[in-house]
Structure formats: C-alpha cells, structure tokens
From TrEMBL:
It comes from Streptomyces davaonensis (strain DSM 101723 / JCM 4913 / KCC S-0913 / 768). Residues 32-46 have a biased composition (Low complexity). It comes from the Bacteria. Residues 29-78 are annotated as: Disordered. Belongs to the bacterial solute-binding protein 8 family. Keywords: Signal. Residues 89-345 form the Fe/B12 periplasmic-binding domain. Gene3D superfamilies: Nitrogenase molybdenum iron protein domain. This is Putative iron ABC transporter solute-binding protein. InterPro entries: ABC_Transporter_SBP, ABC_transptr_periplasmic_BD. Residues 1-27 form the signal peptide.
Length: 345
C-alpha cells in the first residue's frame, strides 16, 4: 500500500482552527445550526449526531444561498495565482471540499463529483474519478467554470490537462488535522466569491465543536488507537502522529495511543510489539475496515489485539469511512459521537 497522500492512500475524502479547540463551552443538543445556551450531555448530543449522520445529508447555512462576487484572484497551493471569473459550474475533486461547497449553499452549482463525495446530495452527480484517479476527459465533458482540488489530487497530468483547457484550478492543502477546517473553509469560500458565507460557516462549526467538547466527562482520558485495516489487501496499520485521527481523538478528550507510544509517522505496520507498546483502552476504526477483518470477532484474532485492554474488553468504536476523516462541516458530529463512545466504560 503506497502511503503518499492521506486522501489517496486511505481512499477517503480527506479543517477548525486552534481557537475552535479552546473556544467557549456553551452548547445545546443542536447539531445543525450552532448551539443554544443550555448544556447537553454527551449521550444526548451523540444521539442527535447519529440521527443526522444516518440521513447522510448536509445542513446548509440558513438563509438564501449566497451570490458569488467575482472575479477574484486567490493563491493556489501549487504556488500559482488563480483568477476565478465564474462559479456557475463548480467541480470539487475531493469529498470534504464538496461538503463545504454544498454547506455554503452552492450545491446547485456543482456539476460533478469524485469517488469520495458519498453524501446524499452528491450521489446523482456524474463521477469523474476512476478508483481515485481523476479523468481529465470526464471533468472537461462537464464544462466546469472552476475546479477545486487538493495537493493529493491526481494524477498530475490530468490536473495540467484541465488547466491547459482554460479551466481555473484552485489547489488546496489537504486537511490532516482539526485545526485545518477553518482555513480550508475560508479558502474555498474566497475562491468562490462568498467570503461572508465562509465566515458564517466557521462560526457555526466553532459553536458546534465547543458544545461537543463541553460534554467530555471530567477525569476521563482513555488511550485510543486508530487502526486502518483492509483485510482483503492484508493492510494492517496503526495510526500515529499525523494520521488525521490523532487530532480527532485529542479533540474528543482522549489520548492517541499510537502518538503517545512514539509512533512519529502517520501509519506504522501493526505488530504484536507495536500493540503492546500502545496498550489502547479503545480501538477506533472505519466501518468498512472493521468489516474487512470479520468484525470484532475477526479483529481480536489478529495477533496482539487480544492482549490489549481494548481487545480484552472488546472496546471498538467504528464510524463510516466517508465521515470519520472527512474534515468538513460534519466533523463536529464526529466529535459528538467520539466524546460519547470513547469515554464509555
């Protein structure tokens, strides 16, 4: 398995500033439009989040959809200056980016999707990726007026072909931690000429995240190991520093077991020694990954798993692949679920 770019290597859609991590602790049970003044328990918030995620739909900003004010010239993460003159036909080449565009209220302008855009609003759009490679021909056939990509999007030849056809391509840095959410939202909103909507979305997510973190029980600091597994491909990895999951685990008031054990790479092959070193209280996985090894029964048969506190107690938390590391508007819902599930005894 080639670990070159997190979005491509995990097959996931792959941003909330540090201020979101330390923001005010007010909040309510609302999971879709900010928070009210009354506190809510972790279980109440998790129930609401689970219900919303089960719908697999997005909650756009309240009010009328914003009208892009163009042209704008923005910085692209590939070192270019890109001028966007028309946002009538938007094509995001990343699922998390697509979620932001839809939540900003611009979903009716989106003309296609990549394979990682798995939410309901995007399911009927034409897909322009094969596996996780972009097809330039498919993109150009949709006549986009602006394409949003990230530095993991490829192959590079396809991006160049799209750009050579005269389509503005704005490249964004991948989201690898919670602190990237606001930056990414701001950059997308600016590129599409709706900066005020971007600011409003950041405020909403900040409120939601602060409310989720307010529900973390005092004195609870479970050690959580994120395991990335694809049983059919014999891929068994434990997350460490920079896996993407470490930021989520810490935001939910827990300790990333791989990071604490000194795994300074995003992913390390699982061995009995690595698991003994990490000693997680809870294992966090993506749902398809857990299914690929035969569920919890199959997981605990993997050498070393049963010897960890998590394995002995069968403490496994799984979340849908397209949501867990999406780092978009639904990330506060992920934190709501993790706050509840990681701290249960």
């Amino acid at each position: 398995m080639k670990l070159t770019g997190r979005a491509r290597r995990l097959g996931l859609p792959v941003v909330l500033a540090v201020a979101l991590l330390t923001g005010a602790c007010g909040g309510g049970t609302s999971v879709s439009g900010g928070s009210d003044a009354s506190p809510a328990s972790a279980s109440e918030r998790a129930a609401a989040a689970e219900k919303q995620l089960a719908k697999n739909t997005l909650v756009p900003l309240e009010g009328e959809p914003p009208t892009p004010e163009l042209p704008v010239t923005v910085d692209s993460s590939d070192g270019r200056k890109v001028t966007v003159e028309d946002a009538s036909r938007i094509l995001p080449l990343n699922g998390g980016v697509a979620e932001i565009v839809f939540t900003l209220g611009l979903g009716d302008r989106v003309v296609g999707r990549d394979i990682t855009a798995t939410f309901a609003e995007a399911e009927d759009l034409p897909q322009v990726t094969k596996a996780h490679d972009v097809s330039a021909e498919s993109v150009l056939s949709l006549k986009p007026t602006v394409v949003l990509a990230d530095t993991d999007t490829g192959p590079g030849e396809a991006i160049e072909q799209i750009r050579d056809a005269g389509v503005p391509v704005v490249v964004l840095d991948p989201a690898t931690e919670l602190a990237d959410v606001t930056t990414r939202t701001t950059r997308i909103a600016e590129a599409l000429g709706v900066p005020d909507a971007g600011q409003a979305l950041n405020v909403r997510m900040s409120d939601e995240l602060a409310a989720a973190r307010a529900a973390v029980p005092e004195g609870s600091r479970p050690k959580v190991a994120f395991l990335y597994m694809r049983g059919s491909a014999a891929v068994y990895l434990i997350g460490g520093k920079g896996s993407g999951a470490d930021s989520l685990v810490e935001a939910a008031g827990a300790v990333d077991a791989g990071k604490e054990a000194g795994f300074d790479k995003p992913f390390t092959p699982i061995t009995s020694e690595a698991l003994v070193r990490a000693q997680p209280d809870v294992i966090l996985m993506m749902t398809k990954g857990l299914e690929s090894v035969g569920g919890i029964d199959g997981l605990v048969r993997i050498p070393g798993i049963a010897q960890t506190p998590a394995g002995m107690n069968r403490r496994v938390v799984d979340l849908e692949d397209g949501v867990l590391l999406g780092y978009g508007p639904r990330t506060p819902l992920v934190i709501d679920l993790l706050v509840d599930r990681l701290h249960k005894t």
